[in-house]
Amino acid sequence: MIVHTSRLALPPVPDRTRRSGTALLPALARLATVAAGLVLMWQAIVLATGAPHYILPGPLGVGRALVESRELILFHAALTLSEVMLGLALGAACGAAAAIALAYFRPARRWLLPVLVASQAIPVFAVAPLLVLWLGYGMASKVAMAALIIFFPVTTAFFDGLRRTDPAWLDTALTLGAGRATLLWRVRVPAALPGFASGLRIAVAVAPIGAVVGEWVGSSAGLGFLMLHANARVQIELMFAALLVLMAIGVALYLAADALLRRLVFWQADAPPAED
User: Fold this and answer.
1) E strands of the chain, at which residues?
2) Whole-number Cα distances in Å, 19 to 16, 30, 190, 252, 274
3) Does the pLDDT at position 274 exceed 60?
4) Rounded-to-integer distance, Cα 250 and Cα 70, Å
5) Which residues contact residue 210 at a Cβ distance below 8 angstroms, ignoring those fewer than 6 apart?
């Protein structure tokens, strides 16, 4: 077998020292600047429209509700965060297993892939009541909802990475006598981990949506439940405060996952041309 030695060059490994703690401060400064700009824009809209507080409360009222109801919000936020984390773990594991099955077994690719694509046409709001019916009003239905909403992005990103392994690496492994299973676990999977990491970043951003949709359909706790009840009692400031906490959870999860994945998948090129 001919080995294309000219194509064996490994991707450049970025200098990990560039990812030191010094990069964190500019990122936090940008985040604080964006948050301050959004708050100012929010207040400007309130002043310009003259909307009553039960339609569009101002940031000061929401901040006051956030402080006064902090214990209540933290209680519900902890439950929602638990649902999101468990859903992420379950959805990532199922998505990775499905991607590997699609890549390793050709019949699975032919029969399962169209079903996965077709399943994305079903709105999550239509599935949520069924999950509550089958799994009950407890945490299980919310975890399943979060796992379901991230399953497809993780599967497709990882499967795409498994399909796009550099042929030169496969030729080299075959020349060295690697079997099919060795090719998968020692060549294809490591080469596809950057794609898997991209799928996980998307999953972290959308997982809270699944948990909150599950709480809206049927629950007795969680930020989604709190927002529904606050809206019903015309406690709009509290509803906005819960929404802000949900957004903060999403941003914090994404930043933490991105930092962790940058360290774990350190061979992934990480220099967008626009930043050069």
Assistant:
1) none
2) 5, 17, 22, 18, 18
3) no
4) 18
5) 84, 87, 124, 142, 145, 146, 147, 148, 149, 150
